[in-house]
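Our consortium's second objective concerns turning raw sequence data into structural hypotheses that experimental partners can test. To show how far this objective has progressed, the report includes one record in full. It was chosen at random from the queue rather than selected for favorable results. The single chain below, 358 residues long, was entered without modification.
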Amino acid sequence: MKKVVVGLSGGVDSSVAAAILHNQGYDVIGLTLWLMKGQGQCCSEGMIDAASICEQLGIPHEIVDIRDVFQNQIVDFLVTGYSAGITPLPCSQCNKTVKFGPMVSYAKENLASDKIATGHYARITYNHSTARYELLRALDRNKDQSYFLYDLSQDLLSATIFPLGELHKSDTRKIAAEYGLKTAEKPESQDLCLVESNGSMRAFLDKYLAPKPGDIVDTTGKVLGKHDGIHHYTIGQRKGLGIAAAEPLYVIELDTINNRVIVGDRTKGTQPECTVCQVNWVSIAEPSTPIRAEVQIRYRSQPVPVTVIPLENNRVKLVFYEPQFSITPGQAAVWYTDEKVLGGGIIEKFSVNGLKTL
């Protein structure tokens, strides 16, 4: 009987993943990573639900305390990023450095298993002609989480099973009900775990970053209002600026040097290209020449045509067929061909052309 370690957050998706594999005859061990204290999945509440699922399925359950790792790799990462005027994406960072990597290591070293599974909506195949594992979108495009998984290495992909990749969310709920799982009707997690635990991203950041008042200005440097810290703003933001104007204004740049939030109309927040660093080529080897693809610059953004130009130092330039609004430093850009994730990386910080500096 093949052994698999299933990451259990206490939600319905990971519960069904464990139940499916258990029903298929796998020797399943539930593993919950204790990331932080508080409410919501990934916290104390989630661990209780995960333990209940394991008891219900009759499988072992282990809890590994990695709160220090989560603090260093995610909390400090977020605080540093926001204070530097970027909007970090914690989920892809967490998947690679906090969840998948430690899970695979723990499974091999302590549980005699070379396979892990999670409740993510994505698919993995193996391409024999290229000798590479390929990461694909989930069948349910509305739940597809491949965007957050672009940074997984070939070793991690080879060790991972996604039992929900061929399912729609409605199917997952039905299976949970059929198995009588206690999490069958558990509500969806609506926000980042840190937001769930703290109530809002502002509340979380305010625990670590002191207020630092400054000016809200337009692209000529004219003062339009005041802010209490640039970490409360993100590129593309329109609501909550606290300023009156004849036309809609958006955050187009966060000026950390002068502690300014710079706003402008939508045209000033639209860019024809950007550069991406920390690139991971997932399903293909790094190309030596430009390639055409479709890119998502945010999780919920629509894929748009792009030319991906490889650069030195693990970077690429993305040249959009049509200029894009709200390109946000710190967020991931992930490029695809059809359903296949080709690669991804982190959007670098840039300055808006023509911006008047003080």
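The partners drew two points from this record. The chain has three domains: 3-197, 210-264, 268-347. Residues 210-264 form a domain with the SH3 type barrels. fold (CATH 2.30.30.280). Both points have been shared with the crystallography group to help prioritize constructs.
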